[in-house]
Each structure stands twice: as structure tokens, then as C-alpha cells.
From TrEMBL:
Organism this protein belongs to: Henriciella mobilis
InterPro entries the record matches: Metal_Hydrolase, Pept_M19
Keywords from the named record: Signal
GO annotation (BP), single: proteolysis
The keyword Signal appears for this protein: yes
Coiled-coil regions listed in the entry: none
Record-given protein name: Membrane dipeptidase
Length: 439
């Protein structure tokens, strides 16, 4: 996550472009859950965990803070109500698999790729972001018997208690706001409750961890400072994923509430621009914040693409050029070509064990009050051994194996995230119309 020397950044940018459990024991009086082979049952997508672990998992409120699934909502090939498979279409999330993997919901992402910093591009991005939010709301309306929009921290337990899936909204990249942070109010009324200032490139708000040109503002820009203040005013969680270290430090200093890193790994396991060094993670935790561990393979470990994939990616880049310079139509064609390339020459994949190494490292460093899960489902996440959300009980099993209590694991699955949302709500100073006005 640190902005490193330019030569190293260029190399990393090129690579990105090419790119038996023990007893459940711990202090605080947790019961023993034996893990004998006789108790093992096959769950969902071939996940072998004990029946007792499944009971623990299914009894918890299980949430993920980074679901990129809304990108599929207007695709004719995707049906949220039908069970699909990663092997068949590359997707990770749908309603049947949410039930199968015990995923109660989380933050569904309004994502906009970074583009040029000019008024025409801002307007185009704004329209795209509003349409993405509309798509999320349309999904919730269409499947109202199965899912429900959530606006407050208290909504999650109520919605899940009614047997429905929870739909919070987040914004990955504030680029669509242009230079008018008051637009955040519009998205808030529509249900937005988490916002991150930046994505892969520096923008009008902040420095990115992965911009090959290096730092532009040494953290937040003056407009970015306004964004943080507006998010605090509205009662939104601020997300430091994708931001340069300097940006995260600025956000910690300025924000009246703790930060979340909604889908981030740790430098202590694999040093990468998108991962966070120990000293910054400690600062986030000391401020009350939380890191949600992602499952994006190339952020978990160094992965070497096949020569065929490398060549195909180089040819694609030569054809389309820099994504930051693309208009909306070109960007659409680029991602269609990129998906076709991935189908023909799949990227190398990391493993469930490596994902858990990141999570356990963070837990050891900052403790279970400051760690959660944001696997980047449908946004590039997923690893061998955890290829979609039906494998989530394996995470619970691994945490039990590592000695964490039920209370700890519940914090990891949703308690920490909801604590941050509740803190944001309590610090809210806006007199904007009631947050459930569009519910």
C-alpha cells in the first residue's frame, strides 16, 4: 500500500496489467467443538467442514464488505436468483450461493473506473455511478421477499432475522462526484453508507497506492479533505482501501470516526502496493478501525502469468492504451476483451491457505476487534480452495482451528463492520432527510 519508488511502481503496474481442525478452545469459556472425521459433512460446493462448525457458522451474522456483484446486474447472462458457478461463468455471488455459504449480505459496491479529470468525464462517471446505485435498488425491489436494503447498523440483524439478505451500499472511487462533494448527499439518500476516495490512479481527491506517476498531493487533496468532512457529516464509513499510505494517515487524522479498509491485505505476508504495512495497520487499529482481508490472488502472493497470457495482455494494452484515457465506450470494449482474454488464458491463482495467512497475520498483529473479511467477490477475488462464497464455512473452521472464540469470530464476520457503521451514525451531524426516506 506504500507508494514506493517509481521504478518499482512501474514494474508492479506492468505485472498488474499482465496479471484437520483442532478443538475449538480459547479463554472466555467457549465450548469444545470436536473435529473428528466421523463428523465431517460435505457442504455446498464440496466444502468439507464438520456439522458442528456449520452450526456455528450458520448461527452467525456473516457479512462481507466488498461485493462487486452489482457489475453483473444488467447483464443478460447473469441471474441473481439462479445458482451459477465460478467454473462456468466466473461469478462468485448469487442468491442460492449466499444461502449455501451462509452469507447474510454486506456492502454492495458502486464502482466506477478511474478516467480523465475533466468535466465531461466527471459527468459521464456520475451517470454511471447513479445507474449502478439504481441497479442495486432495482435488485432489492425485484427480490424483495429475499433481500432488503439496509440503511443503519441495526437494520442488519433485523433483516437477517427475517430470513432475508442484507444490502448495504458502498462507493469504490469517489471520482463520479467530480468537484462537487455535495453530490454525496444524493447517493446517501439512495442508501450509500461507505465511501472510498480513490482507486487505481490518483484522482481529484487523493493519492492512490498504485499510481505509477507517484504522489500528487502527498495524501488527500483539499477537495479530498472536504470529502472526508462530508462523509463524517452524513454518517458514512470512510474506506482507505486503494489509497496511498499518506492518504490513509490523512484520513485517520481528519476523520471524526474510525476507518475501514474494506478489501486489503498485509505487507507482513506479501509486500505489495495494495497491502498495508504493519505500522499503518497498527495506526488504523489504534484509531478504532478495521482491516477486511481480501482474496485477490495477486495481492496475496507473487503469481507468474503464463507466457501466452503475458503476450495477450501486452497486445491488449497496445490496442487500447491507458485505461485512464479511455472514454466510456472504449472502456466497455476493453473490459469485454479483457474478460474474453481471461477465459482463454486464465490468470494464475493463489490459495485458501495464503488467504488465511494474511487474515491470521492481521489477527495476530491487531486482534479480532480490528479484522474482518472483504474478499473482493466478483471483482477479482477468489482463490483455489475458496473459489466462491459457498466456501465461507471454511473460514470459520480455520478460525476455530486457530483458537478463536465464537465471540471473536462474530466480530470478524460482521461485528467490527457494524461497530464502525454505528460509530459513523452516532457522529452524524447532517440534517438531511431521514436515512430511510427511499426504503
Amino acid at each position: 500500500m506504500t507508494l514506493r519508488p517509481l521504478a518499482g511502481l512501474l514494474a508492479a503496474s506492468s505485472l498488474l496489467a499482465l496479471t484437520a481442525c483442532n478443538d475449538f478452545h480459547q479463554e472466555s469459556g467457549s465450548e469444545i467443538i470436536p473435529q473428528s472425521e466421523a463428523q465431517m459433512s460435505t457442504h455446498g460446493h464440496g466444502v468439507g467442514v464438520s456439522k458442528d462448525v456449520l452450526e456455528v457458522h450458520n448461527d452467525m451474522l456473516v457479512m462481507d464488505t466488498h461485493l462487486d456483484t452489482p457489475a453483473y446486474f444488467h447483464s443478460a447472462k447473469y441471474d441473481f436468483s439462479k445458482r451459477q458457478t465460478f467454473e462456468a461463468d466466473g461469478t462468485h455471488v448469487d442468491l442460492p450461493r449466499m444461502k449455501e455459504g451462509g452469507l447474510d449480505g454486506g456492502f454492495w459496491v458502486i464502482f466506477t473506473p478511474q478516467g480523465p479529470l475533466d468535466e465531461a468525464s466527471y459527468h459521464s462517471a456520475r451517470n454511471s455511478a447513479l445507474l449502478r446505485q439504481m441497479a442495486i435498488r432495482e435488485m432489492a425491489a425485484k427480490y424483495a421477499d429475499e433481500v432488503e436494503l439496509a440503511f443503519t447498523a441495526d437494520d442488519a440483524e433485523r433483516i437477517a432475522g427475517e430470513g432475508k439478505r442484507v444490502v448495504y451500499q458502498s462507493m469504490e472511487n469517489s471520482y463520479p462526484l467530480g468537484t462537487d462533494v455535495s453530490l454525496l448527499e444524493t447517493f446517501y439518500i439512495g442508501g450509500l453508507r461507505m465511501v472510498g476516495p480513490v482507486h487505481f490512479r490518483n484522482n481529484q481527491f487523493a493519492d492512490s497506492a498504485t499510481d505509477v506517476t507517484g504522489e500528487k498531493f502527498d495524501g488527500l487533496s483539499p477537495l479530498g479533505e472536504e470529502l472526508v468532512k462530508k462523509a463524517n457529516e452524513l454518517g458514512m464509513i470512510l474506506d482507505g482501501s486503494h489509497a496511498a499510505d499518506t492518504t490513509v494517515y490523512d484520513m485517520i487524522e481528519l476523520s471524526t470516526t474510525p476507518l475501514i479498509l474494506s478489501h486489503t491485505g498485509v505487507d507482513g505476508v506479501y509486500e505489495h502496493f495494495r497491502n498495508i504495512p504493519d505500522e499503518l495497520l497498527l495506526a488504523v487499529a489504534e484509531d478504532g478501525g478495521v482491516i477486511q482481508i481480501n482474496a485477490y490472488g495477486s495481492y496475496l502472493e507473487a503469481l507468474e502469468p503464463s507466457p501466452e497470457r503475458t503476450q495477450a495482455l501486452e497486445e491488449l494494452d497496445a490496442e487500447f492504451g491507458d485505461t485512464a484515457d479511455m472514454d466510456k465506450e472504449t472502456m466497455t470494449r476493453y473490459w469485454e476483451a479483457r474478460r474474453a482474454l481471461n477465459d482463454e488464458f486464465p490468470p494464475p491463482r493463489s490459495t485458501f491457505e495464503k488467504f488465511m495467512e494474511h487474515m491470521l497475520y492481521a489477527l495476530e498483529l491487531v486482534g479480532p476487534d480490528h479484522v474482518g473479511m472483504g474478499a473482493d467477490w466478483d471483482g477479482g477475488g477468489g482463490v483455489d480452495g475458496m473459489s466462491d462464497i459457498t466456501f465461507l464455512p471454511k473460514v470459520t473452521a480455520a478460525l476455530i482451528d486457530a483458537g478463536y472464540t465464537k465471540e471473536d469470530i462474530q466480530k470478524i464476520w460482521s461485528g467490527n463492520m457494524l461497530r464502525l457503521l454505528r460509530a459513523a451514525e452516532e457522529a452524524r451531524t447532517s440534517e438531511l432527510t431521514s436515512p430511510d426516506v427511499l426504503n
